[in-house]
């Protein structure tokens, strides 16, 4: 059977970065609470002319430059930070990237889980016609109320993936385990720009979904715990993945070995929560790490509040190191501009979700920007020729 999976993977983030030590100082909190208690050091903060479309297009651009567009007939955009209640964010990206008209484009939503739904949908499309490739874009901006307990777990990023037959990076195995439970642990009402969250309930719901999806994965032919070399969890904050792995190991009567998951934290410690992109940023960090992962089995443990969980696994492909984008991701992180705490608070307060006509100042150095809202419609532009 032809192998199907992730052929290319590319990470993008925002223009600004907030140091969590600065947030701790303002909140009168010991910085170790964020560093050790949550496992986070920084969070990405979007400029006024950035959103999920600009980040998603920036993540996808290097993939298009490397592989061209000839085989891409589907663009799936996964987000819970949608920019319109009707039009898919992917349609804006389709235009910015100059993709051919012969592409189906749609947006998927289910909190942090939707990227995995997009990946599974893409695999189904490629299984039907292995000559086609699917561009999957996961992108989110995590926003909670200022001065709330959840504030240090904000962040933003996009991860774009090219899904194809004979993948260069990760061949996904057929078995998967799924879990759905109707829980009000975290959600964002239609009239709110910030999420409503019950922090304690959300961590319990995350654990229950991981264990439920794991049991279903095993019941459907998934690998044994001991046969998975590395575990990539959804990382709302990296301590959550640490706790989830300890719980899953205990569930399987095994020891929790940090080497099995810690190298997936490198990027998310600096990005913060990027909701549906988070697990895939963890996968990027693992593939970019110094270890040679050729032939290793990777477990992916996806969770989206509300709630849906899924466990799937894949085998790292020979030669994968020639295709990873470690330098690109490190540059995206290093090139962010440190934002002062009061400027971050002003930017946060200015996001009102309104579609009133306005022009946005050019701040971002990313390849695409949100130029303005005119007649209630969002207008994006490329900065590359400007
Ligand atoms: P909190 O009030 O900061 O919690 O809220 P805390 O007071 O229990 O402290 C957190 C940890 O810091 C604790 O460690 C403390 O001991 C430790 P733990 O007991 O948990 O191991 N601590 C310290 N450590 C070192 N030095 C110190 C110190 N002081 C305290 N001085 C909470 C934390 C995560 C609840 C909050 O930030 C929150 O509500 N975040 C948003 C919700 C969230 O991220 N939930 C995660 C699961 S749900 C999910 O992943 C889905 C999601 O991504 C959304 C989606 O699906 O779309 C959120």
List keywords for this structure.
386 residues, nine-stranded mixed sheet, three-stranded mixed sheet, 11 helices, globular
Strand percentage:
25-35%
Q: Bound compounds, please?
A: 3-hydroxy-3-methylglutaryl-coenzyme A
Rg value: 19 Å
User: What's the end-to-end separation, in Å?
Assistant: 47 Å
Question: Would you mind describing this structure in some detail?
Answer:
The protein has 386 residues and is of the alpha+beta class. A 9-stranded mixed sheet has the order 5-4-6-7-1-8-13-12-11, with helices on both faces. A 3-stranded mixed sheet has the order 3-2-14. A 3-stranded antiparallel sheet has the order 15-16-17, covered by helices on one side. Helix 1 (20-27) crosses helix 2 (31-38). 32% of the residues lie in helices and 27% in strands. The structure holds 3-hydroxy-3-methylglutaryl-coenzyme A (HMG). 3-hydroxy-3-methylglutaryl-coenzyme A (HMG) binds next to helix 2, helix 6 and strand 12.
Summarize the topology.
Layout: E1 4-12, E2 16-19, H1 20-27, H2 31-38, E3 42-45, H3 52-67, E4 72-78, H4 89-96, E5 104-108, H5 114-128, E6 133-142, E7 155-165, E8 170-180, E9 186-187, E10 196-197, H6 199-219, E11 230-233, H7 238-251, H8 268-271, H9 278-288, E12 297-304, E13 308-316, H10 326-334, E14 337-338, H11 341-350, E15 358-359, E16 368-374, E17 377-382
Parallel strand pairs: 2-14, 4-5, 4-6, 11-12
Antiparallel strand pairs: 1-7, 1-8, 2-3, 6-7, 8-13, 9-10, 12-13, 15-16, 16-17
3-hydroxy-3-methylglutaryl-coenzyme A binds next to α2, α6 and β12.
């Amino acid at each position: 059977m032809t192998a199907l999976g992730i052929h290319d993977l590319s990470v993008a983030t925002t223009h600004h970065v907030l140091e969590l030590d600065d947030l701790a100082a303002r909140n009168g909190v010991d910085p170790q609470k964020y560093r050790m208690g949550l496992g986070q050091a920084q969070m990405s903060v979007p400029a006024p002319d950035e959103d999920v479309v600009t980040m998603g297009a920036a993540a996808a651009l290097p993939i298009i430059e490397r592989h061209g567009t000839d085989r891409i007939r589907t663009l799936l955009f996964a987000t819970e930070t949608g920019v319109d209640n009707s039009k898919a964010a992917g349609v804006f990206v389709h235009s910015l990237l100059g993709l051919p008209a012969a592409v189906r484009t749609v947006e998927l939503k289910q909190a942090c889980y939707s990227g995995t739904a997009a990946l599974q949908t893409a695999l189904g499309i490629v299984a039907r016609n292995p000559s086609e490739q699917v561009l999957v874009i996961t992108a989110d901006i995590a926003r909670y109320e200022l001065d709330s307990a959840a504030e240090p777990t904000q962040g933003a990023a996009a991860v774009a993936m090219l899904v194809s037959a004979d993948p260069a990076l990760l061949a996904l195995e057929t078995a998967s385990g799924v879990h759905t439970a109707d829980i009000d642990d975290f959600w964002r009402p239609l009239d709110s720009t910030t999420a409503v969250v019950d922090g304690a309930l959300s961590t319990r719901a995350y654990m229950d979904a991981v264990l439920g999806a794991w049991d279903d994965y095993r019941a459907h032919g998934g690998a044994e715990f001991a046969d998975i070399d590395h575990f990539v969890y959804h990382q709302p904050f990296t301590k959550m993945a640490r706790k989830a792995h300890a719980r899953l190991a205990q569930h399987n009567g095994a020891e929790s070995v940090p080497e099995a998951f810690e190298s997936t934290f490198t990027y998310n410690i600096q990005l913060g929560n990027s909701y549906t992109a988070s697990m895939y940023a963890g996968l990027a960090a693992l593939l970019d790490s110094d270890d040679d992962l050729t032939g290793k089995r990777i477990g992916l443990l996806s969770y989206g509040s509300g709630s849906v969980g899924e466990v799937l696994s894949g085998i790292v492909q020979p030669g994968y190191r020639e295709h990873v984008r470690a330098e690109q991701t490190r540059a995206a992180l290093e090139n962010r501009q440190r934002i002062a705490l009061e400027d971050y608070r002003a930017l946060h307060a200015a996001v009102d979700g309104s579609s009133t006509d306005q022009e946005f100042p050019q701040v971002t150095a990313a390849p695409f920007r949100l130029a303005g809202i005119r007649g209630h419609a969002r207008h994006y532009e490329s900065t590359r020729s400007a």
